[in-house]
Write a structure and sequence with these properties.
mainly alpha, 4 helices
Length: 117
C-alpha cells in the first residue's frame, strides 16, 4: 500500500508517466501477486483450500478493510472448526432407546394434618 501515496505524490508533482507506471505496477502486479500467493500461503497454514482462503480474504477485505486479509480466512477456519466440533459432539451422543419407563417417585398419601382445637 506504499505505492498509493507515492503515485499520488508523483501525480501532484507533475510526473504523470511515473505515477501511471507506479499505479499500474502496484494495482496489477503487486495486488495480483498478493491475491494469488497470499491465499496459497495462508490456506496451507490454516488448512483451508485455496479457493476458500481466497474467498475469505476478499470477503474479509470487504467487511473489515485491510485487516480483513487475515481476519477473513481466520473467521472461516474458526467457523469450520466449530462446525466439526458440533458434528462430532452430535454423533457421539447415544440415541434414546425406547424402553420401559421408570415410574415417578411413588406418591405419598399425606395424612390430614391434625386439627388444633
Amino acid at each position: 500500500m506504499i505505492w498509493v501515496p507515492a503515485a499520488i505524490y508523483l501525480a501532484l508533482e507533475g510526473a504523470w508517466a511515473s505515477a501511471a507506471i507506479l499505479t499500474i505496477w502496484g494495482g496489477v502486479i503487486v495486488a495480483g501477486i498478493d491475491n494469488l500467493l497470499y491465499p496459497m500461503l495462508v490456506g496451507s497454514r490454516l488448512r483451508l483450500h485455496t479457493v476458500v482462503a481466497f474467498i475469505g480474504a476478499v470477503g474479509g477485505i470487504v467487511l473489515f478493510g485491510a485487516s480483513g486479509l487475515v481476519l477473513g480466512p481466520a473467521v472461516i477456519a474458526v467457523t469450520i472448526s466449530l462446525i466439526d466440533i458440533l458434528k462430532r459432539r452430535l454423533n457421539d451422543q447415544p440415541e434414546a432407546e425406547p424402553g420401559p419407563k421408570r415410574d415417578a417417585e411413588p406418591s405419598r398419601q399425606s395424612e390430614p394434618a391434625p386439627s388444633r382445637e
